[in-house]
Amino acid sequence: QVQLVESGGGLVQAGGSLRLSCTCSRSISSIHTAGWYRQAPGKRRELVAAMTSGGRTNYADSVKGRFTISRDNAKNTVYLQMNSLKPEDTAVYYCSLSNPVPSVSYWGQGTQVTVSS
Question: For 53-63, what is each residue's pLDDT tens digit?
Answer without folding.
Answer: 999 999 999 99
